[in-house]
Amino acid sequence: MKMRNVAIIGTGHTKFGVRTDVNLQELAWEAIKQALEEANLDQKDIQYFVVGNVGSWSAEELPAVVVGEYSDLTPKGTMRVEAACATGSAALRDAYLAIKSGEADIALAVGVEQMHQSPNPQVVELIGRAGDYFWEFENFGLTFPGYYALHASAYMAKYGAKEEDLGKIAIKSHHYGARNPYAQFQKEITMDEYLKSKPVAYPLKLLDSSPITDGAAAVVLASEEVAKKITDSPVWIVSQGVASGTANLSKRTDFTRIEAAYLAAQQAYSRAGINFDEAWRFFDVAEVHDCFTIAEIMAYEDLGFAKRGEGYLLAREEQTYIGGKIPVNVDGGLKAKGHPIGATGISMAVSITRQLLYRAPKGTQVDVKHGMGISHNVGGTGHYAYVTIFSTRRPSS
Amino acid sequence: MKMRNVAIIGTGHTKFGVRTDVNLQELAWEAIKQALEEANLDQKDIQYFVVGNVGSWSAEELPAVVVGEYSDLTPKGTMRVEAACATGSAALRDAYLAIKSGEADIALAVGVEQMHQSPNPQVVELIGRAGDYFWEFENFGLTFPGYYALHASAYMAKYGAKEEDLGKIAIKSHHYGARNPYAQFQKEITMDEYLKSKPVAYPLKLLDSSPITDGAAAVVLASEEVAKKITDSPVWIVSQGVASGTANLSKRTDFTRIEAAYLAAQQAYSRAGINFDEAWRFFDVAEVHDCFTIAEIMAYEDLGFAKRGEGYLLAREEQTYIGGKIPVNVDGGLKAKGHPIGATGISMAVSITRQLLYRAPKGTQVDVKHGMGISHNVGGTGHYAYVTIFSTRRPSS
């Protein structure tokens, strides 16, 4: 049966960083306002909205409701969704399905997180609970840098990647972050600075790690019929894959990859008619989930951009800069742009949309040859994975 | 464009009550297992699952992930959704849209809540934060019984309803709860007991109030094509309406109704071709959100079962018992069955499905004349509202 096509027709993005100058709903509204303006719509046109927010550190128990009221979206239908650090992509999915299913013609997805509402050690504790609280956090004290350090150690031991290869990811992220006015860290770093940065969990250092971030991002989606009337530059959601991993990392068989991300990519590629081994040839730009540098290297392999065990070579050879084999995270990535966990997935969609429409910040714009982009958003350590494919060409469906 | 029909093909429901005998994932699995068995499917057949859980009192930060692993649903795609006390209906919606949109052919929605994980005063505090935390909870100390007491006072003052009319609701709920083996309270109460029960927030008493509950409920949904192969007794989701209300109750203009519920009903009725003023004629059974007795009376009016200001007469005349104008909450409702807030919306869908298929517990089965049922699930005090219509007849769409 023929399904409805869904397009992004407006995008909004706040400055990422320490955003205690506003409250949660004000932060969300900054992104929503921009997205509505870009779509040339106002609140009454929105038929449904969804709020992505983890918010364990938030005083507000019902983020979707306070955001709805403050943004004047009440009484439109809504819900809050959560998929750990992939929460933004879960929100995108909900709005996408609302339109694809015919329940709405215009919907808004906003991701928002204000992680600085909580003092720093508590945030790390709360993030540490993501996974299997009872077995791994309560009993063994694992927190997220520890989890990803397991991945990095396993990967380096098996494939011979070096600390400098991880450093290359951080340097690239900061190179582009320095050119993105929305980024939390707008300064470049050197390999020397990287190697000397404080150890967090061996082999990961401070400069391998994405920061604690406040921020919001929003997209307005529309059905094909409506999109055609509103804009001459829609960006279509071609397909989405979604998969999950075990809560316990002890039940995973391989620490050199994120199996859920691989499965989500397979789904998304299969629906879009993309061959996994040549996937990189299809895309002008990719946004991947580099919560730690090692995660970006695993993403190269889980998305088929590099063969197993060769992802670090893409970094070493600088093939994921603009002009390389496939530009990745040229908005600064989670590492330098920042990682407000409820917003990150939508931020990826915003960056890709603006890239495909030649609206990226100066010094970060890729050449658009294929009109296609891809986002890879992981929750936890592969507890959730969402892979989404975007295109300026209308899907035939 | 023709959309896909979606059917419920399996239902599961745990005993509601104090369920500290199990953990969150074990509780969810009780319902999931039953739903899979009823659908004659196993985990590998499920293509997507969604977990409804509020869980502010939960140690587990990622309920969908621990439920997925324990229930052997990993690596299927998933997310957690939240819409306060309407969370179960939000989960139903997500699974419904996954199938209606063509993203999946078989999906599972489970709602689970373990409110006794937290000591009682803290649960009331956490529920109190649902609404506008900053203005109404932090500054004025309003908690949920207080909010609904405002509704009850306004309603009684405007329309002349009496305490005994509220009592009629509680007595009916306990009458049917006593006959539902899954109910938290399986005993009848008298008007005298009702009138003498402890005051909570005038005019509401302990016996006006739904309890703190642990429990889970699950449904398996399938596309028409798949449902036809699996079962000869599908129950179709005909339509769903969804709306929201302001976070601040101070911004509401009328306390004698829940505007969001009325709007959600309008949407659901409009899509199903049902005339609001005669809505009660269409349904064999209704499940409404009686978190406090006054809420059930407002629901009668917001759903069009009674004219404005006359809902309490339905209670007084016992028209919502089996054999009356329209049987409502004949499973005991939130009041007697219990209200595990993430599960309640799915529990309603389970009760309606079993009623329409003549599988309700003895002494609670309605006569099925139209083959249709309706659920009304409110989050907060009208912060969210979901109205869903079910039928044994396949929608023509």
Automatic annotation (TrEMBL), chains A, B:
Transmembrane segments: none annotated. Keywords: Acyltransferase, Isoprene biosynthesis, Transferase. The keyword Secreted does not apply. Residues 241-392 form the Thiolase C-terminal domain. One of its GO terms (molecular function) is acyltransferase activity, transferring groups other than amino-acyl groups. Gene3D superfamilies: 3.40.47.10. Its EC number is 2.3.1.-. Residues 6-225 form the Thiolase N-terminal domain. GO terms for biological process: isoprenoid biosynthetic process. Pfam families: Thiolase_C_1 (PF22691), Thiolase_N (PF00108). This is Acyl-CoA acyltransferase. The gene is ST0079.
